[in-house]
Amino acid sequence: MSGHSSYVPKTGIERWLDVRLPIIRLAHDSAVSYPVPRNLNYLWTFGGILAFMLVAQIVTGIVLAMHYTANSMLAFNSVEHIMRDVNYGWLLRYLHSNGASMFFIAVYVHIFRGLYYGSYKAPRELLWILGVVIFLLMMATAFMGYVLPWGQMSFWGATVITNLFSALPVVGETIVTFLWGGYSVDNPTLNRFFSLHYLLPFMIFGVVGLHIWALHVVGQNNPTGVEVKNVQKDTVPFTPYATVKDIFGMVVFMILFAWFVFYQPNFMGHADNYIPANPASTPAHIVPEWYFLPFYAILRAIPDKLGGVMAMGGAIVVLAFLPWIDTSKVKSMSYRPIGRQLFWAFVVVCIGLGYLGAMPAEGGYVIASQIFTVLYFGFFVALFVVGLFERPKALPTSIADSVLASKGGSAARVATATAAEPNVKG
Amino acid sequence: MAHATDTSTGTTRRDFLMLATGAAGAVGIGALVVPLVSQMAPDAQTVAAGAPVDVDLAPIAEGQAIKLFWRGKPIFVRHRTKKEIDEALAVDVATLRDPQTDQQRTKAGHEQYLVVFGNCTHLGCIPLGTAPGESKGDFDGWFCPCHGSHYDSSGRIRKGPAPLNLPVPPYAFTADTKIKIG
Amino acid sequence: MSRTSFRLALTGLTAALSLALFQPAAQAAEAGPKPPALSWSFSGPFGKFDRAQLQRGFKVFKEVCASCHGASLVAFRNLSQPGGPEFTPGQVAALAATYQVKDGPNDQGEMFDRPGRAADRFPSPFPNEQAARAAQGGAYPPDFSVLAKARTYTRGFPTFVFDIFTQYQEQGPDYIHALMVGYKEPPAGFPALLPGQNYNEYMPGHLIAMPKPLSDGQVEYPKGADGKSPVPETVDQYARDVAAFMVWMAEPHLEARKRLGMQVMAFLTIFAFLLYYTKKKVWSRMPDGSPAH
């Protein structure tokens, strides 16, 4: 996709720099002249939104670390010190805690966009796998960050999640002891979690660099899933076209972000985390943050310790194999009558699992969780099977053609919709 | 947009729109900087803890000095002897690096008490000369061992690299032997 | 998304919900009534504390609650800062001086008591949790500093989704108020109360160690011009006032937050509109000059 660079150094300094360290050329090629499919919809702005959220989390996090104390005796009060005494401390802390949730909202949209439009398929397998790696790193970072205020949910979340590793045969107990740095979750645990919570975002930053590099090698997917054939006709330069669209997307996303930060700052948190950690008493309902709930539901659905952990891990790892699980030749679900329904069913299953993860693990909830866990993994099996026999709709010959067709007006759209019906039933 | 012709009005409108958007973006980024920078300033608890403190000078015998802390900084309070006061008054102010009379550095009627910040004005070390037995330097005041600055019995810089006299903190006598610093 | 897949999605969602929603009906009956949602001056995007209410709430806290409950994160100086009860700094200094605060060690190496200063935090009634439990028959009176944010009740689906839009977030004060007015005789069939147990309608499990703390006329409120308190001196009013005061203690910058929020929202909305039209302009022509979609 990169091909020939269109950068022309204008001044003497730029020419001098260009033969020694072509950093301006790199920036120009990847953020200005980089060709972007002209038919991207707003779901494609979430990559930029995620980059913004990562930087926002790192900036607010560094600032919060200037005031936070990673000591089990002082951590809770130091967070409250930030909330009460530090200038704009309440803002920075609420930006950071709600920022984590917004980060996950954006990443889930980003993931489901990739799922719908088949962005994991050749030649983007590695791009997708790097994304799964980022997702895993995000989960680790978010989990350790949630431990830092040292409230009841912090403490018991840390206890439960670290105990997951004890399910591993032979080495499990040793791993858990090493995670704790003691015989239970205590000050050493908090201290190392703080260290890692500070480290991991920079690892995410690095993997995001690879993710973007891989993206710029293979180019962006687009709603048709048809690759760029003619750069002139099918693409627009990143700047100004994608830049202004991405910034618009970011600002709209910021409105949602600000709504929570300023008006509902504790909506996505848990009240129990305003109770200082107490190793002698577990809260009645311990639940992880909302973004972990679907996986938590899968964990609890399996009535076996190791089995539950394996199922939960598998639910994430299976995503990395998606490029080879999906057998369809067509990328975009827009042209896959059955695949599309599978996709929406999967969305419902994930939301359902999220709901069940928040409910107590008893009676009907457990049975429902088990059904939904089967459905979750069933999606991947179905995707494999359906791809073998599904008859996709006709793809547009090029991106430019699809843009022209959609300009044709509603008449053309109705025609495609009715054409889709027999396929669905068949 | 069909009417995006390059007429003069069209260009003006586009320029204005771009300008307004760019300006709004700049304002937004500027506003973001405010909390990020102002969080570096002392927080409310630190500011509140820096409220004035009361000090009782009665226990300080003539010729002795004490070290106390206000806002995290050391403050020297010296109960000067007659000899020390006379030395301080005898200096020709015009010859000083940072010209100040002894009267400017003490409170009238309480000349025996000298109250100064205890950080060398060179690079912030604490000069010797407060505790008994410590070197008071060449001028019966304080001597900073870090880089060899000598202060006289009025806390004025006399020799060495320090540029200024030891500053006098804001304080007032609330009784004959009681002061409020701050 | 075609109509069929939408239908499928709906069916799935309904199935998921019906599976899950059968369950909580039984639980809800057991958990007792939900605290009524009161109207608070500080709710909503323009919410502000009622200064007089915070001052009354402080009086209730000081005269009743503070004998067992601490507020260890709150400093006297907070009482005069903007957005709170806004006592004058002079009132705060005088109030602080009535408390004895542990300080030290002095030159003899001993801890000593001195009159409080504005910068001091509220002294807790007990030196530590163990001492509190020992004095309270095993129960621990929780610290009030962030309690209004640490107490809640289940809103349930779909109410919690609506809460995003209505900005309802006053579960804490609603629960605290309900708890104060929820002391009742146990219903028939309820197991006999042991010593140190009290029945409360809104307490999860209905058993609470704290005896009914408030009674009508217990705290004398400042009189108005007519020689009477402008608000009734009742348990209900005391509970409202102290709950509001506790919200302020837990969220002392609430007013500043909501005020800044309105400015940020206004700015972002304008900026978004500007960007939208800029984006339309940019996309109105393709790089080769041809008009776009």
UniProtKB/TrEMBL annotation, chain A:
It is a multi-pass membrane protein. Belongs to the cytochrome b family. Component of the ubiquinol-cytochrome c reductase complex (complex III or cytochrome b-c1 complex), which is a respiratory chain that generates an electrochemical potential coupled to ATP synthesis. Pfam families: Cytochrom_B_C (PF00032), Cytochrome_B (PF00033). It is found in: Membrane. Residues 228-397 form the Cytochrome b/b6 C-terminal region profile domain. This is Cytochrome b. Keywords: Electron transport, Heme, Iron, Membrane, Metal-binding, Respiratory chain, Transmembrane, Transmembrane helix, Transport. The chain crosses the membrane at residues 42-70, 91-111, 126-148, 160-183, 195-218, 238-262, 306-325, 337-358, 364-389. Its main location: membrane. Residues 13-224 form the Cytochrome b/b6 N-terminal region profile domain. CDD domains: cytochrome_b_C, Cytochrome_b_N. The main subunits of complex b-c1 are: cytochrome b, cytochrome c1 and the Rieske protein. Binds 2 heme groups non-covalently. PANTHER family: CYTOCHROME B (PTHR19271:SF16). Its cofactor is heme b.
UniProtKB/TrEMBL annotation, chain B:
It catalyses: a quinol + 2 Fe(III)-[cytochrome c](out) = a quinone + 2 Fe(II)-[cytochrome c](out) + 2 H(+)(out). It is a single-pass membrane protein. InterPro entries: Rieske_2Fe-2S, Rieske_2Fe-2S_sf, Rieske_Fe-S_prot, Rieske_Fe-S_prot_C, TAT_signal, TAT_signal_bac_arc, Ubiq_cytC_Rdtase_Fe-S_su_TAT, Ubiquinol_cyt_c_Rdtase_Fe-S-su. Its cofactor is [2Fe-2S] cluster. It comes from the Bacteria. Its main location: membrane. Its EC number is 7.1.1.8. Keywords: 2Fe-2S, Cell membrane, Disulfide bond, Electron transport, Iron, Iron-sulfur, Membrane, Metal-binding, Translocase, Transmembrane, Transmembrane helix, Transport. The main subunits of complex b-c1 are: cytochrome b, cytochrome c1 and the Rieske protein. The Rieske protein is a high potential 2Fe-2S protein. This is Ubiquinol-cytochrome c reductase iron-sulfur subunit. It comes from Bosea robiniae.
From TrEMBL, chain C:
It is found in: Membrane. InterPro entries: Cyt_c-like_dom (IPR009056), Cyt_c-like_dom_sf (IPR036909), Cyt_c1 (IPR002326), Cyt_c1_TM_anchor_C (IPR021157). Keywords: Electron transport, Heme, Iron, Membrane, Metal-binding, Respiratory chain, Signal, Transmembrane, Transmembrane helix, Transport. The chain crosses the membrane at residues 260-277. Residues 52-180 form the Cytochrome c domain. It comes from the Bacteria. Its main location: membrane. Residues 1-28 form the signal peptide. Pfam families: Cytochrom_C1 (PF02167). PANTHER family: CYTOCHROME C1, CYTOCHROME C1, HEME PROTEIN, MITOCHONDRIAL. Belongs to the cytochrome c family. This is Cytochrome c1.
